[in-house]
Amino acid sequence: MNFSLFDTMPIPLLPAFSPPFQEELFSSWLTRMAYDHGLPLADFCKLVGVNGKHKRDLDLYVPDEAIRQLAQQTKLTTDQVAAMMMSGYHSKLVEQSNQPERLDRWFFRKYDPLGNTVRGSLLYCPKCLSNHHQEPYFRKHWRLAFSFVCLTCQCYLLDQCPHCKKAVTLLGKTMDTHPWRNAAEYMVHCGYCVKHLAAVTPDVAPSFALKTQQELYDILEHGFNERAFYPLTYFRVLHHLSTLLITRKAKLVRDARKNLLPLIGRLYEQHKVAPIFSPREEVQVQFLPIQQRAQVLQIAVWWLQDWPRRFLDLAKRHGLQSVDIIGQFKNPPFWFWEPVIHQLIPPLTPALKEVPFGFQAIFTKPRNRAKKKQEIRKIKKYRQKQYGIS
Ligand SMILES: [Zn+2]
Ligand SMILES: [Zn+2]
Questions:
Q1: What count of other Cβ atoms lies within 10 Å of the Cβ of residue 285?
Q2: For residue 291, which phi and psi values (nearest 5 degrees)?
Q3: Is 288 exposed, middle or buried (0-12, 13-18, 19+ CB in 10 A)?
Q4: Counting ligands in written order, which one lies closest to the CA of residue 197?
């Protein structure tokens, strides 16, 4: 321990410090600390320099300055404080660390009946929360939208209070309303109906869900394969494929839909899952109920296994064109883009990014009708030569 810290410290240490548990989520730790100081979470946030807009989601938005202050007040290092936040997943799940909202793609969110997101909504494992050998706390990976089972307890996580069906959140619960005896009690009771969150028999997770979950965590840790060793690109592709699987509206896949539908139907059938469509207009896999999310991700993970052989076999068998797969995929990573472009049939009216190397010149945006016709002729010729189709 560095005792010089005490001489120079401009901010006094917090009197009731408790160290974070393993894999503890920032808002969970802050809630325990607030309780230990006898303060509501909102007041404690003010005390430690977390205020204003940052409170809308503590795990996402806390600024560096507040993290530094908390570290000084608790004897933790700034890295230890920051590691509890979702920013720990930067570079693994988002492109730029200065845009926390980009975590949205894989960030669990729960909607209220009016369709608004519930701030700080959490997933949780009821068995872990009621483990008598461990004080209850929320884990960091319970905020990821691709978390759906607890690998330790082998059951499904819950994405809402099992009694009143409202979102589970640590924010907005006041300590005055109910006489919680300690932080542990505060943690495990629903903020709305006040019932025990773990007073439920969780659904046993089937083996496919456990296997898929393990695989996703492994990829998050170690990357996908030697060509896609950055988890970031794998999870971008996985999200795109999950979106294709649940899109009902033609907007996203437009013309591609008629080609894709038979393949998607086949994938669901093969996995013995009834087709799942997004209940919302924004087609995002994280809005699906948890067990459906597990099923869709299972199929998407399977689809990408043995890359690119399985994927291309299926695509060719269903006569897919490259545009069916990447037509609406902005900046697909090279390892995904390259086999799709080179081995699937190019479309008649491709966008520039979908064009094989060496052919970019003929796909530049046509300025007039004559030029467009001329370009389509060139593409037809190319398709005829390469694939024997017109
Ligand atoms: Zn558990
Ligand atoms: Zn409840």
A1: 23
A2: -75, -30
A3: buried
A4: 2
**The pairing of beta strand 155-156 with beta strand 149-150:** antiparallel
224 pLDDT higher than 70: yes
Instruction: For residues 60 and 332, give the distance between their C-alpha atoms in angstroms, rounded to a whole number.
Output: 26
How far is ligand 1, taken at its centre, from the CA of residue 194, in Å? 21
156 alpha carbon to ligand 1 midpoint, in Å? 9
- Distance separating alpha carbons of residues 269 and 70, to the nearest angstrom: 52
The alpha carbon of 328 and the centre of ligand 1 are apart by a number of angstroms equal to 38
301 Cα–ligand 2 center, Å: 33
Residue 127 alpha carbon to ligand 1 centre in Å: 5
- Identify the helix (H) or strand (E) that includes residue 36: helix 26-36
Ligand 1 centroid vs 41 CA: distance in angstroms? 25
Residue 350: pLDDT over 50: no
CB atoms closer than 10 angstroms to residue 340: 22
- Nearest bound ligand to the CA of residue 166: 2
Q: What amino acid occupies position 53?
A: K
Mean pLDDT score of the chain, rounded to an integer?
A: 81
Look at residues 329, 327, 346, 333 and name the one whose alpha carbon lies nearest to residue 385.
346
Distance CA 269, CA 345 (A): 25
The residue behind tokens 């999200």 is 239
Distance CA 147, CA 48 (A): 30
